Amino acid sequence: MFEIYNNTAPDIAIAIVAFLAVIGLGIIIRTLLVRHVVRRSRKTDTKIDDTLVVVIRSFGSKFYAILAFLIAFRFFITTPSVVENALGHVLVIFLGVAVVIILFRLIDFFGKEYVESVGGTRRAFTTALPAISMLLKIVSALFVFTFVLSNLGVNITALVAGLGIGGIAIAFAFQKILADLFSSFVIFFDKPFSEGDSIEIGSISGTVERVGIKTTHVRAFSGEKIVVPNEQLVGTELRNITDRTQRKVVHTIPVAYKTTPEKLQSIPKLIEDVVSSHNKVLFGYAKILEFGEHAVMFEAVYKIEGATFDEFVDTRHTVHLGILEKLHDEKIDLGYPVKTAVSRGTGS
Fold it and tell me: Confidence band (pLDDT; 50, 70, 90) for 298?
């Protein structure tokens, strides 16, 4: 009689049938479930149906083929005890990986759905969502990994005790990464800024494009992208200028000393008229600040309300240009250094 490692022809045939049956049943059940869930999702507003579709579609034909191969050889083919144990371990690991994939899909799906549901109403949470998702994935993967090791016969208690000292060493090795990771959670809970906010930190000024687990990407006002470690953002003085209701402008204007006292007295009113002619611009004052080396120094102060940074720059430019035009119309010259020519006579 035909035999291979104590497996007769009927045994091999049954294993092949089991292999094909598992693949076929898996694909059929997957197709029917997807159709049924999609049909139900059209009748309900809940997202649970969509979640089930995501989970079911996570596994394709390759998954069922590998699962069928492991089941057929593990339960329908006679193999040496070493091979049998190895196949059992591989099957446990394979199912553990499948569970991790399902959990990862669920975490990504619910995170995406949450962002779409809140829109921009909770920017602080959506900013920290990548870090939270990563932490949830790590915790779920560790949980499944522990469960798999337990089913493989590993003493989890002894393993955890043995990893105590190793964990300390790993913590020291990754302390910089861990510091940035926890800083991302500080950004979430303390809410110093969110994606889309304009911030100033040291010499960096720009708009926050993305808050990651380790770094934050800032698009500088000059155009380049700057990547800043989260730990630096948390441990340094930071200014969030997004919700600034007013922006103060302090401008110094040098006026030539040859200007008559009458015209000097008219300058504050002249500046006030120019500033007040613009919407959302509040005039403060315009006074003589000091007598400079080459000019009488006037200080003009005004505030621009409810403007973005670009609007603020444009308004300030327009106001300063208007002041220059007004001074020119009144024939008031600006002060500047005057070079005096010194003639040298020749001695006899």
Answer: very high
Q: Which of 228, 324, 319 is nearest to 282 (CA)?
A: 319
Based on the fold, state whether residues 235 and 254 are members of the same structural domain: no
Alpha helices in the chain (DSSP H): 9-41, 48-56, 61-75, 81-118, 123-151, 156-173, 175-190, 230-235, 261-276, 309-329
CB atoms within 10 A of CB 299: 15
Domain that holds residue 198: 193-240
Give the three-state DSSP class for 200: strand
Q: Can you give the CATH number for the domain in which 211 is found?
A: 2.30.30.60
Give the span between the Cα atoms of 307 and 346, in whole angstroms. 65
Nearest to 200 by CA among 247, 231, 227, 237: 237
DSSP state of 315: H
Within 10 A of 219 (CB to CB), how many other CB atoms are there? 15
Q: What is the pLDDT of residues 26-49, one digit of tens each?
A: 778 777 777 777 676 666 665 666
Amino acid at 316: R
Rg over CA atoms, the chain: 37
